Amino acid sequence: MNNKYYCAKPTKEQLEWQDAELGVIIHYTLASYYPDVDHLSADAVKQMRIDNINPPKLDPEQWIIAAKSMGATYAVLCTVHGSGLALWPTKVNDFSVAQMAWKDGKGDIVREFVDACKKHGIRPGLYYPVANNGYYDINAWKMRDQHHTEKYQSYLRACEAQIEELWQNYGELFEIWFDGGTLPKEDGGIDMYSYIQKYQPHALCFQGPKENPNNVRWVGNELGAASENCWATSNVGEASFSGLIEDEPAGRGNPNGKYYIPAEADRPNRDAKTSYAGGWCWRAGEEHSVIPPEELLQHYITSVGRNSNFLLGMAITTDGDFQDTEQFAELGRLIKEHFGTPVAILEAPEMSKTYTLDIPEGKEIRYVVIREDITEGQRIRSYTVKVDGEEIISQHCIGHKRIVPLGGFRAAKKVELIVSEDVGDHAVRDLAVY
């Protein structure tokens, strides 16, 4: 095989996921009730009372309505986080909503979340981490050489049972989130691919097992920003990583990668440096750390506009509601204002070296947006954008979407997209200006 002309292709599910573009990840956790406790220590977890937790405003529909106002098309709920508290009435242990005072122990947050998603046309996803769990005294960072021990293997059997509950009982999932990835079976981990095939074969898996065809990868930071050229393709061993090195190769991908594994760029909706738990979990008195919607719009441009999906955090209060609804609504308004209706668009043009888009007379533009038809993979490898003959950008990766800011409004008559290198016959989905 001549690797120069090899081009990995996405699955149907990966294409749908990339079209989804914008999602949320929701954290309602015990950490917000006990912010000064080590949630990965079993001794500490045993000291936390959950029988008196009765949030008066807990309403997953309120969360989903807020997400939809921002323009999210999918939502991921953290079903277990840190301490190990399960947000559904699991039969595997006695550390779940069934032991909470909320709804007299008869509530099911996961069920209400999934139902709210279906009601409002949002595709549901579930986060279930295997790497860490305080209830079982599992801290992956301290147990790297203990994966074959009886303690760890017993813990994995509990994980398998909870995974079966979640993946069997709540319908088809759009995305499954493995925070920290999945340990391969040969290294002492769960045969996760078999569970995916059996229960959720169409779900996208964030950092899923290498055998899974519907994987997506972490972009490599929690800044909501992809690298300038963020390829949707990579190689096994390059798509799951620690993230400790800023912008390491796995975040950028590999244009000649053997596997199609697009990137997801996540970030909390509150400032990571000035708020609790990196901004992922809520703590009182931190309203000052809510990121301005105008800044989040820039993260949308550097994530969705750089061939990755944008996953924005939602920190739920101890009362059970999402406070930052104005932030989300304004972000949604800004996205519509900037990218709602194109000034001009060239749709599905015939393949060419140069694509020309004429701008209606008297119109000003501030963005050029290019979408490659990636059904057969990312084939464009180098391109230039010109506005009225002036070179604006010359880069390599387009992929699902590339947003090129012009630095403000400018009058223009013509935009050109010049493809200088491709592998095989490329295809442009559309070229638009906003």
One letter per element, helices H and strands E, the order comes to HEHHEHEEEHEHEEEHEEHEHEEEEEEEE
Name the helicity range.
Answer: 10-25%
| CATH class placement of the largest domain | Alpha Beta
**In CATH terms, what is the fold-level topology of the largest domain?**
TIM Barrel
In the predicted model, the low-confidence regions spanning at least 5 consecutive residues are: none
Give the domain tally: 2
Radius of gyration: 22 Å
Shape: globular
* Secondary-structure content class: alpha/beta
The CATH architecture designation of the largest domain is Alpha-Beta Barrel
| Average pLDDT score | 93
Number of separate strands:
20
Number of helices: 9
- Share of residues in strands: 15-25%
Lateral strand order in the biggest sheet? 1-2-3-6-7-8-11-12
CATH superfamily of the largest domain: Glycosidases
Largest sheet: 8 strands, parallel, barrel
Distance between the termini: 41 Å
Provide a descriptive summary of the structure in words.
The protein has 434 residues and is α/β, with parallel strands linked by helices. The chain folds into 2 domains: 3-339, Glycosidases (TIM Barrel, Alpha-Beta Barrel); 344-433, Sandwich (Jelly Rolls). Helices cover 21% and strands 24% of the residues. The protein contains 9 helices and 20 strands. The strands form 5 sheets. Strands 1-2-3-6-7-8-11-12 form an 8-stranded parallel barrel, surrounded by 4 helices. β4 and β5 (138-139) form a beta hairpin. The longest helix is centred in the middle third of the chain and has 20 residues, at 150-169. The chain starts with 11 loop residues before the first helix and ends with a strand. The model has no long low-confidence stretch (mean pLDDT 93).
